[in-house]
Amino acid sequence: MTEEERLHQPARLPRPPKAALVEREWGKAPSDHEERQFLAGPRPRGYEFVRVMRIAQEYVRGFRALHFVGPCVTVFGSARFGEDHPYYELSREVGRQISKAGFTVMTGGGPGLMEAANRGAKDDNGRSVGCNIRLPKEQQPNPYLDTFVEFQYFFVRKVMLAKYSYAFIAMPGGFGTMDELFEIATLIQTGKIRDFPCILVGVEFWRPLIEFMRGTLVGLGTIERSDLDRLHLTDDPEYAANQIREVGMKKFGLMYSRGRPHRRPWLFE
């Protein structure tokens, strides 16, 4: 390269560290280098085996902690709405109505609308459960939990949120809430779980998404109209609780197939 060509080259700014890029782009930086390694492709076989054992340990810990919580309703929702937001009070009333219907309220255990739903359960002296996820920022367990389990992996946590519930309620939220909602919808669509009620609370928030799915996804045939009919839209927490009660009691019986589980001292329960 000649001197003249070199002078006309654009200046190259120093590249910021990778973590700084992530923090600037998403507002937070991953704190666990080990988890990034796990998702980075093939690793040594010994590393992969140890990782599988740790994942299995998380599942066992979750199963043990949640085995006796009773029939649950899982409430999804944003961690970013504060106590002064109307959605917070709406979620709190949802939790209260779920508890009045005889269910345990299960959430991701964090702040915002999760906290509100757990708080509503405690308003009714009901049971409140949280499956928390370790994050660098934002996700701290809320103070309204009777049972609390913390997970490293999102996929383990999502299994727990689905495994113990007879119904699912989606409050307004972001990527996490959308991810959880559509995973449940997919599990119901494909028959991996029963056709439990799936209720979207907050008509103004959810209507544009429903219209998109009806006009585009149903229109193009990527989902069936019956798939969309499984999602119930409402602003009324009492209606949501009634839907859950009716479906749960009449269709699914709200009972364990082999009787309620009993604690076994030899398993340290």
Question: What are its keywords?
Answer:
Rossmann fold; 269 residues; seven-stranded parallel sheet; alpha/beta; globular; single chain
- End-to-end Cα distance, whole Å, is 74 Å
CATH architecture assignment name: 3-Layer(aba) Sandwich
Q: Main sheet: which strands, in order across?
A: 4-3-2-1-5-6-7
Number of self-contained structural domains: 1
- Average of the residue pLDDT scores: 85
| Helix/strand order, N-terminal first | HHHHEHEHEEHEHEHHEH
Strand content: 5-15%
Looking at the structure, the CATH topology is: Rossmann fold
List how many beta strands DSSP finds: 7
Portion of residues in helices? 40-55%
What structural class do you assign from the helix and strand content?
alpha/beta
Q: What's the overall geometry? A: globular
Count helical runs: 11
- The top level CATH class name: Alpha Beta
For the sheet with most strands, the description reads: 7 strands, parallel
Computed over alpha carbons, the radius of gyration is 22 Å
Low-confidence stretches: 18-30
